Amino acid sequence: MSRGSGRQAGPRAGSPAAPRVDAARLAAYDVLVAVREQDAYANLVMPRLLRERDLGGRDAAFVTELVGGTLRGRGTYDAVIDHLTGRAPDPGVRDALRLGAHQLLAMRVPDHAAVGSSVELVRTRVGHKPAGFVNAVLRRLAARDLDGWMRELDASQAVRTSHPDWVVVELARALGRPEELEALLAADNERPTVTLVARPGLSTVEELGGTPLPVSPLAVELASGDPGAVPAVREGRAGVQDAGSQLVALALSRAALVGRDERWLDLCAGPGGKAALLAALATGSGARLLAHERQPHRAVLVRQALRATEGDVVVGDGTRPAWRPDSFDRVLVDAPCSGLGALRRRPESRWRRRAEDLDALVPLQRALLASALESVRPGGVVVYATCSPVVEETAGVVRDVLAGRGDVRLERAEPLLPEVTDAASAHLPGAVQLWPHRHGTDAMFVAVLRRDA
User: Fold this and answer.
1) pTM (2 d.p.)
2) Which residues contact 99 (CB under 8 A, 6 or more apart)?
3) Which position among 222, 387, 391, 408 bears the catalytic label?
4) 272 is in an annotated binding site
5) Which domain does 253 fall in, by range?
6) Per UniProt, where does S-adenosyl-L-methionine bind (predicted)?
7) Cα-based angle 38, 39, 41 (whole degrees, multiple of 5)
8) Looking at the 3D structure of the chain, how many domains does it have?
9) Which of 56, 92, 119, 370 has its CA 20 to 30 A from that of 220?
């Protein structure tokens, strides 16, 4: 997040003849407001807004950097803003100040363009009254670079790396290697690349273009461009999916089974990325996937994700399933979680979540894993996964559930994922814990459990 390391501004940002607030900055501001007011996810709101406003090319790239960089750096920028203002600005004004701070402290936008466009942005979206205040604050902010402000504030590790204090504590505990914590927090703040998955039997890595990734045999990285412009993605034969999520599905499909292998279950299928990959893998193995989702609007997304492959989608409560016990041969529980393993792609999660959220999430995770173990037949396999490395959500859940069952054993997940090394969980021997700074993936947790035959 040092100045001069960001993306170049679009052509409108630095041109003296351009308006001081443009469509790209207005779009970025509106995404931030939606994230704050509607609990929206930027990676879902932004593509729709870009289409609606006909913003593409360099403008779209500029919006993406403004939104993602501002959300990732929010904690750092707020510390500087609060130091300069001495009071809490109104939420709409703070959003504009954050955008201005990101341009001044982490991008190559000229000072006059960052300050002037932010002032005009406030006039356009908030009103004339706070414009002078924003002008004064950003002019003072521009007097130092980011390192200078961190020294001025004697900033803590949490402020420097733009993570809430409790998140730093939980990540450090989960990591188990104090010497790697700074690298992990830095990796959370890196701009994520676009990773595609080639769904087996429907598309190939070669068809997708881009650069193959060694971490998954199905993954390619796009250096630039709109993934929706790739025909296989547009048609549902491929998708946008982090390589760590791909490995979760591959682990389930690779586990050895004795006897029947016909029915697979994704217990928590929304929004559908893992379900689509599992459906393709199941079809290739002569099996069929049932994708189960509790929320109807997310079930719609699952159906859309499965449009190019075979599989069934149902809506229901995963803790009280409608099917008979012992119905499935393979079951995935990609449990609802804090999402602290995906902070690169969903940086707003770090500001949205609270430590007390674990009080509700962990009992739900236990109940879903228990339900999955009832749903799988004796001899069948359950993969428990989260996009969080937090110990209570990962090793804690598996240990608690195993303690109550004598017919289930934990199997080693590492042999199922030979693509990754140095991935052993520090808290549950046999489980896998991926990390962005080690593996270039989200911090996915994977545990493989088998019911005794």
Assistant:
1) 0.92
2) 25, 28, 29, 32, 66, 70, 118, 121
3) 387
4) yes
5) 241-451
6) 268-274, 293, 317, 334
7) 115
8) 2
9) 56
